[in-house]
Amino acid sequence: MSMKGLLTGLLIAAIFPFTALAAPIVIGYQTGVDPSKVAQADGVFEKTIGQPLDWRRFNSGPEVVAALASGSIQIGNLGSSPFAAATSRNLPIVAFLVSTQIHGAEALVVRNASHINSYQDLKGKTLATPFVSTSHYSLLAALKHWGYKPGDVKIVNLNPPEIAAAWKRGDIDGAFVWSPALSQIEKDGKVLTDAKQVGEWGNPTFEVWVTRKDFAEQHPEVLAKYAHVVLESFDHYAQHPEEYRATSENAQKIAKLVGVSAQDIPGLLSGSVYPTYTQQLSSSFLEGGSAIATKATAEFLVEQHRIPAVLPDYRPFISDKFVKLSRQP
């Protein structure tokens, strides 16, 4: 973290005096690769927040949603599809930071042994993806774009570790997924499309950091400091991408945390866009764009019979308050 970032963090601490919590804050993270994983590995979040954190790893967004609903975690990382599904059911959560805009970090890979040379060869094939995830959303959107009807392709619900295992057994012909499973299956497969391409077809995906609404009301200082650390990480990556090359210490820290090879880290990092402080507060993200995209995602999920209904407005589930507080002068 830069000296400027450290000073800002200290100012935030002055604005929000420390209030002890009864127990460590429990945070649910996933295996997607992003620059803030270095801060997680180095304990920067704990130092900035001034509170013990209990980091729990999840395999998919729906698992994070269930943990938030039960109260077993207070903060979690979600893709736009599970976020749309959860908020459409009025789960009391709020997105306080856009963590990534997904591009090549999620992709549809087909097995070389399945002899799939183009999307036209997918009919009758078996594809895996974690249901109600961003990858699931992207897969359904891609199949719709290509003109496939329900039943033309068999889609099975597997979480990333299960996808890697099923791939090795030869049980599936392809999968739309993220790393570490993505890196594993790419070794003897090829990318047919990715989230960036699907986004250009009209169905973009992103990830958000969310919290329970009761936690947001009681501990705004925690979320402001959390957002501060993430945004400082994004700035550092944007300004010093060479410090994340495959042989770097940063790449090794991220690789160890998410379970991939450090050689894969530069490519995985370049597979997403990490919105800066200014971009977070633009009309494309927290100032309206995320709510519009969430509603569009929900409409698609209703069309695909994944959720029952769409809410008229998703703005109550998205807040820019904590990003603004993260850089209070």
Task: Give a written overview of the molecule.
- By secondary structure, the protein is an alpha/beta fold.
- It is 43% helix and 18% strand.
- It contains 16 helices and 11 strands.
- The chain has helices spanning 3-15, 36-42, 44-49, 61-70, 80-88, 134-145, 160-169, 181-185, 195-200, 213-218, 220-239, 249-258, 265-269, 277-280, 289-303, 321-325; strands spanning 25-29, 53-57, 75-79, 93-102, 106-111, 126-129, 154-157, 174-178, 189-194, 206-212, 272-273.
- It has a 6-stranded mixed sheet with strand order 2-1-3-10-4-11, with helices on both faces. Strands 7-6-8-5-9 form a 5-stranded mixed sheet, sandwiched between helices.
- α6 links the parallel β6 (126-129) and β7.
- It is globular and about 55 Å long.
- It starts with a helix and ends with a helix.
- Residues 1-20 have low confidence and may be disordered.
